[in-house]
Amino acid sequence: MSSQPLASRPLLTVDGLVKRFGSGNRTHTAVDKVSFELRAGEVLGLVGESGSGKSTTVRCLMGLERPDAGTLDYDGINLRRLTYAQQRRFRSEVQMVFQDPYSSLNPRMTIGRIVAEPLRVNTKLSSSARRDRVVEMLELVGLGAEHLDRYPRSFSGGQRQRIAIARALVSGPRVLVCDEPVSALDVSVQAQVLNLLKDMQEKLSLSVLFIAHDLAVVRYLCDRLVILQNGVAVEQGSRDEVYGDPQHPYTRALLEAVPRADPAGERMRRQSRLELIETRTA
Amino acid sequence: MAIYVAKRVGLAILSVWGIITIVFFLTKLIPGDAARVAAGRTATADQIAQARERLGLDKPVLEQYADFLARAVRGDLGQSASTHQNVVTDLSQTVPVTLQLVLVAMLFTIVIAVPLGTLAAALRDKAPDVAARILFVLSGGVPVFWLAILLQWLFASNLGWFPISGSNAFGAAPPDVTGFTLVDSAIAGDPAAFADSFEHLVLPALALSAPFLSTVARNVRSNLIGALDTDYVAFAVSKGAKPFRVVVHHGLRSTFGSTLTIIGMQLGWMMGAALLVETVFALPGIGVYLNQAVLNQDTFAVLGCVLVIGVVFTVASLVVDLIQIGTDPRVRASYTTGATA
Amino acid sequence: MTSLTRNPGAEPEPALEPEPGPERSRLLEPAAEAERESIDAEFVPAGTRGYRRVNEWLTPAGLGAGISRGLRGLFGRRAPIVDRIAIVIVLALVVVAIIGPFIAPYDPYLAQPVDALLPPSAAHWMGTDDAGRDVLSRLLTGAGTTLLAAIAVVVLTTVIGVVVASIAALSPRAVDTVIMRVCDIAMALPAMVLALGIAAALGPSLGSVVVAMVIAMWPGTTRLVRGILRVTMSSAYVESARVTGVSKAGLLARHVLPNSMDSVYVQASMEISGAIVLMAGLAYLGVGAPPPSADWGAMVAQGREYITTAWWVTTFPGLAITIAAIAFGLLGDAIRVRLDPSLRRR
Ligand SMILES: Nc1ncnc2c1ncn2[C@@H]1O[C@H](COP(=O)(O)OP(=O)(O)O)[C@@H](O)[C@H]1O
Ligand SMILES: [Mg+2]
């Protein structure tokens, strides 16, 4: 586990973020005055059940959705009014891994080109230097150079998510935003991908905003947590506070939540996943 | 709702302005001396000079455009070189003929396509369905004017079931009030004239409806199949309801809206195709007038027709859209919230 | 923050196609359809079917790859019979369009009044017209102009549509909206009517008909392509590229266009059939290649007066148009079923 310098400064600040969908009298508030901050070097978990507004929050943050109100700030830059230079800086320093690795890789591009793209747009590296860096990065996420010229379709979900992680990290970002990066994967590979993310976070001393709908997944990953319910941040605090002494009933419900369909099996699977993580991080 | 209607009407007005503008630029496309073209092939030097002045061809383009707009709004689209009448006067007699044909053809389309599509859906994958689908493919590919010629040849010339051409038999025409022969017969209270007018419309309307039949019937079919696969229908059937009744009752209602949309979308094509069908059956509509104008190289009459058809079409699609918001709550909702599907 | 976001509240997506497509072939050959699915499923993870090889957009190689991907299997044992018939007819038409003038048994233009209106016979398989010209020879000679002109119209319209839609996609929201509104307004004129007006203004020639049809049809195509681009634009891989800092132009060139071209090809293939019929209609109304030429639509018009005495003069050209339109329509449908990822995933 990474030990945090206690007074690390906030890197990303979300203050009073509001996002509504629809118009006229049929609006739906997906994110309702959410505020939190991501401090340098920490892993912050954003947790809530499906539909609670987690993706919308980070989509606003990443400029994929236009917020209705609130301030978004990255390292002193106002994200809602970026100059061209600030935009460039933000895009190169804050990267994202999407939920569904099956749809987040361009099917018409080779892995080499996909992973090289951030280098191409954010750095002035020569093409051979780019290639070296891509190979290095692919090896770091556990894929060999022999994959460079293959297309996404020939990879499994777990491999694709590794590729997505490689793409996100290749240009050396400071912040990584992960939107449920393992929820679309087979349970058997979830742990591997989580471990990879954990490794990377430590090796590259990244600040990570990690989204999950499941408190179990983030338990061993996050230093602090924000709990979202219906677009409202109902609780936030350090991992120990949230797990040890949950204040809000929704948090307690999340902690106790047991999947209905196959409780025993799911618990076992979850258990083995957690053990895997523990043995890796031990 | 009111906002939407206002928006939609605004768009229609914008369209009319756009059409006038397009037609104005088309007059600028005419190669060579537009005044000579406007005056007609047999014009004297004097008439050409007159036409040049009338068209204001010596003025700057912007001024010409302003004049053209002003005249178009007043309903002055210039003179036909062959009839020497104001094009609008000529067209006011022909538009009702075309509109009536289009409306009757739409009626035919619905009357034929809905039962056919329903049948195909209810007997999915069985012989009648396959036959219907082959028919859809065929009817979708036949050029209307050729089909019109064949129908005329078979059912009028050979079998004599329907009149060959024209909109009424000699002396059977109702007194002209609206220009719609069916309406005029009704106004005159003359069933014989009504029957005569209708007989003259059957073949043209049938020919015109063919290509659209296929689209509408396919839509009805796939909509009904979609409805058949829903839990609602499965539930109703499991409770002992006859599947066919369920199809008709539940499925057709949901099909109504999308059928209307398709018909609205096909309106433009139908008006274009109507021009072709009219020339075959010598129905004195815009098509025949336009055809004559083209053959006489009466370009200004052609452009006048283009303008009028554009305006008629714009108004007609406005009406279809307004009917649709009036009847379909989902469409209404989607417009008032502006949500995308 | 830029207009490339997926934007709820923008104008409604144009309906790309009113009727769901693959039913025709599925109905006529249900087993084949199912098998086709299962072959394609090999080695292809869910969600990416339809993307089997690289396809650089708009290059001849890319176009070829797209078409070959679309046609792959059309000749295979498992292809539905309808698709196979359609492609055979289309290929035959293309061949006739190219070599037609050379295999025509008679001079298509030479009037021989003594032979006027002869019925079909061993000497004249499709009879002769009012000027004594062999109908078959005229059909063979006219195939080239009729079909190639229709294809040229669709190619030009599609290129213009892609370019304008791309410009709209790259422009600020307001400019995008204005471009689309201009298309809407131009579409307020039925294509047939607008094309007729333009062709009439330009004077009678094949070239002016092609130009007229392109001018009349590009707004509709542009709108459809814009819709396709918008759909692709909102896909996760485009958003992924956006957040890594790729510019709008880079997104369009490297991500959006390459992944949209399949749908565009489908659209284009569907339009050929309509273009054939539209052009025939225009020729029938008297705008088109001037008289002696053997345009199919014009041949129908010319034979119309003689229908009661000489049915063959108008029937054969009409049949030719019908067959061509249906074959291209079926082919478009078949290509769509093969290329359109959204239909394949069903
Ligand atoms: N583009 C959109 N248009 C309309 N509603 C949306 C859109 N995106 C998300 N929503 C709605 O916003 C709410 C939050 O969604 P989301 O942020 O995806 O939740 P989560 O990621 O927590 O599962 C949901 O109710 C969802 O339906
Ligand atoms: Mg989500």
What would your notes on this structure say?
The complex is a heterotrimer of chains A (282), B (341) and C (346). Chain A has ten helices and ten strands. Chain A is α/β, with parallel strands linked by helices and 282 residues long. In chain A, the strands form two sheets. A six-stranded mixed β-sheet of chain A has the order 6-7-8-3-9-10, sandwiched between helices. Chain A has a four-stranded antiparallel β-sheet with strand order 2-1-4-5, covered by helices on one side. Chain A is globular. The N and C termini of chain A lie close together (8 Å). Chain B has a domain of 192 residues: MetI-like (MetI-like fold). Chain B is 78% helix and 0% strand. Chain B is globular and about 85 Å long. The relative contact order of chain B is 0.14. Chain C is mostly helical and 346 residues long. Helices cover 66% and strands 0% of the residues of chain C. In chain C, α5 runs parallel beside α12 and α11 packs antiparallel against α12. The N terminus of chain C is likely disordered. The chains are: A alpha/beta (282), B mainly alpha (341), C mainly alpha (346). Chains B and C meet through α1, α6, α7, α9 and α11 of B and α1, α6, α7, α10 and α11 of C. The complex binds adenosine-5'-diphosphate and magnesium ion. The site of adenosine-5'-diphosphate has 10 residues of chain A, from α1.
